[in-house]
């Protein structure tokens, strides 16, 4: 096995064609260079240089060996560059899963701020249901999860949690759009509604809210509720993240609904805490984006 020092001295002797010249360049004594070079030749198993009164002459074996040594040093240089990129957060793997609500704006804005397209960052992003995201995060097969939660999951480290009222989206010419501040469910009672399956749709049915309460409409995701509402001329009840995206893309007005159960969400990771620098950067910016949209919702 050759040492790094032996190979470095070999390259320098090949470049200078002189043991003393290599010693001067490497700031070593000439006897040290001669000894290390002799050790290298014994390990190599054949002479690498012919000694002359002035300098040395590489053997054909040395010329052939130099080609492989240079390849090895090029690989080591590349490894050093890769290590520097990793420590700067410019190279690595980013693995996370979110629900649809985060896919429209939160994640794209986060990845844009990280400039992943300009860096050597591999992104593995899965969009699944809340239960699936929780289960897969608990298993440790991804580094970050984001989901809508009724109860905080066990077996994970919660990085950020918050809640916000649900919102309804309205065309600007809608009668309810002229109201200011949050709405209540009674404001929505005369209109056909589509809400998220579960808490929202159940609450409307229980309290007989909406012109279509006898035949309620429900959707698994907020973006599905908005799409259905636009096609059918009804009022959708959605989460704040999807509402913010939809207003930005399609205009209209978003209003908080004060007396519906709150939309609770969290960002979390496995308990093992093996997140990389890239994971930590993603998590920080991702939470900042959530806070930005929550601040917007509070003003509606």
Automatic annotation (TrEMBL):
Keywords: DNA-binding, Transcription, Transcription regulation. The keyword DNA-binding applies. The keyword DNA-binding applies. Residues 2-59 form the HTH lysR-type domain. GO terms for biological process: positive regulation of gene expression. GO terms for molecular function: DNA-binding transcription factor activity; sequence-specific DNA binding. PROSITE patterns: HTH_LYSR. Belongs to the LysR transcriptional regulatory family. This is LysR family transcriptional regulator. It comes from Ruegeria pomeroyi.
